[in-house]
Amino acid sequence: MLRCLTGWIHLGEESPVYQMTAWYRFERAVYKIRTIIAMYREQIFRANRLLKTGVLLIALLAQAACNAERNLIPIDGSSATTA
Questions:
Q1: Residue 35: which residues within 8 A CB-CB, separation 6 or more?
Q2: What is the H or E stretch that residue 36 is in?
Q3: Domain definitions of the chain by residue range
Q4: Nearest residue to 16 (alpha-carbon basis) of 4, 28, 26
Q5: Are 44 and 37 in contact (CB under 8 A)?
Q6: What's the domain of life for this entry (predicted)?
Q7: 2 — pLDDT class (breaks 50, 70, 90)
Q8: 8, 16 in Cβ contact below 8 A?
Q9: Full-model pTM
Q10: What does the pLDDT look like over 23-46, one tens digit per residue?
Q11: Rounded distance between C-alpha atoms, residue 24 and residue 2, angstroms
Q12: Residue 74 to residue 81: CA distance in whole angstroms
Protein backbone atom coordinates (compact mmCIF):
# COMPACT_ATOMS: atom_id res chain seq x y z
CA MET A 1 0.00 0.00 0.00
CA LEU A 2 2.80 2.40 0.91
CA ARG A 3 4.52 1.67 -2.39
CA CYS A 4 1.30 2.45 -4.27
CA LEU A 5 0.92 5.75 -2.45
CA THR A 6 4.54 6.79 -2.99
CA GLY A 7 4.33 5.80 -6.67
CA TRP A 8 1.14 7.82 -7.00
CA ILE A 9 2.73 10.87 -5.40
CA HIS A 10 6.00 10.45 -7.31
CA LEU A 11 4.37 10.05 -10.74
CA GLY A 12 1.86 12.82 -10.17
CA GLU A 13 -0.95 10.67 -11.52
CA GLU A 14 -4.62 11.32 -10.90
CA SER A 15 -6.22 9.91 -7.77
CA PRO A 16 -7.21 6.22 -7.77
CA VAL A 17 -10.87 7.25 -7.44
CA TYR A 18 -10.63 9.23 -10.68
CA GLN A 19 -8.84 6.35 -12.39
CA MET A 20 -11.63 4.00 -11.41
CA THR A 21 -14.17 6.48 -12.71
CA ALA A 22 -12.28 6.86 -15.99
CA TRP A 23 -12.03 3.07 -16.28
CA TYR A 24 -15.76 2.81 -15.66
CA ARG A 25 -16.44 5.36 -18.43
CA PHE A 26 -14.17 3.44 -20.78
CA GLU A 27 -16.00 0.18 -20.06
CA ARG A 28 -19.34 1.89 -20.63
CA ALA A 29 -18.13 3.29 -23.96
CA VAL A 30 -16.96 -0.16 -25.07
CA TYR A 31 -20.31 -1.63 -23.99
CA LYS A 32 -22.20 0.99 -26.00
CA ILE A 33 -20.07 0.34 -29.10
CA ARG A 34 -20.65 -3.41 -28.80
CA THR A 35 -24.37 -2.84 -28.38
CA ILE A 36 -24.51 -0.70 -31.52
CA ILE A 37 -22.55 -3.30 -33.49
CA ALA A 38 -24.90 -6.03 -32.25
CA MET A 39 -27.96 -4.00 -33.25
CA TYR A 40 -26.65 -3.29 -36.75
CA ARG A 41 -24.68 -6.51 -37.27
CA GLU A 42 -26.73 -7.68 -40.24
CA GLN A 43 -26.55 -4.30 -41.97
CA ILE A 44 -22.78 -4.16 -41.41
CA PHE A 45 -22.28 -7.64 -42.88
CA ARG A 46 -24.59 -6.86 -45.81
CA ALA A 47 -22.67 -3.67 -46.59
CA ASN A 48 -19.42 -5.60 -46.38
CA ARG A 49 -20.74 -8.21 -48.82
CA LEU A 50 -21.91 -5.49 -51.21
CA LEU A 51 -18.52 -3.82 -51.05
CA LYS A 52 -16.72 -7.09 -51.81
CA THR A 53 -19.17 -7.82 -54.66
CA GLY A 54 -18.59 -4.34 -56.10
CA VAL A 55 -14.81 -4.74 -55.99
CA LEU A 56 -15.08 -8.15 -57.65
CA LEU A 57 -17.37 -6.74 -60.35
CA ILE A 58 -14.92 -3.90 -61.09
CA ALA A 59 -12.05 -6.40 -61.32
CA LEU A 60 -14.03 -8.58 -63.74
CA LEU A 61 -14.97 -5.59 -65.90
CA ALA A 62 -11.35 -4.46 -66.00
CA GLN A 63 -10.26 -7.97 -67.01
CA ALA A 64 -12.93 -8.11 -69.71
CA ALA A 65 -11.86 -4.69 -71.04
CA CYS A 66 -8.24 -5.83 -71.11
CA ASN A 67 -9.17 -9.01 -72.99
CA ALA A 68 -11.37 -7.08 -75.44
CA GLU A 69 -8.58 -4.61 -76.13
CA ARG A 70 -6.18 -7.45 -76.82
CA ASN A 71 -8.60 -9.02 -79.30
CA LEU A 72 -9.42 -5.87 -81.31
CA ILE A 73 -9.21 -6.24 -85.07
CA PRO A 74 -7.51 -3.31 -86.77
CA ILE A 75 -9.69 -1.24 -89.14
CA ASP A 76 -7.37 -1.80 -92.09
CA GLY A 77 -8.01 -5.58 -91.94
CA SER A 78 -4.45 -6.60 -91.12
CA SER A 79 -3.96 -9.36 -88.57
CA ALA A 80 -4.05 -8.40 -84.90
CA THR A 81 -0.77 -8.62 -83.05
CA THR A 82 -0.37 -9.31 -79.39
CA ALA A 83 2.18 -7.41 -77.38
A1: none
A2: helix 16-39
A3: 1-39, 41-71
A4: 4
A5: yes
A6: Bacteria
A7: very low
A8: yes
A9: 0.38
A10: 888 888 899 999 888 888 888 888
A11: 25
A12: 9
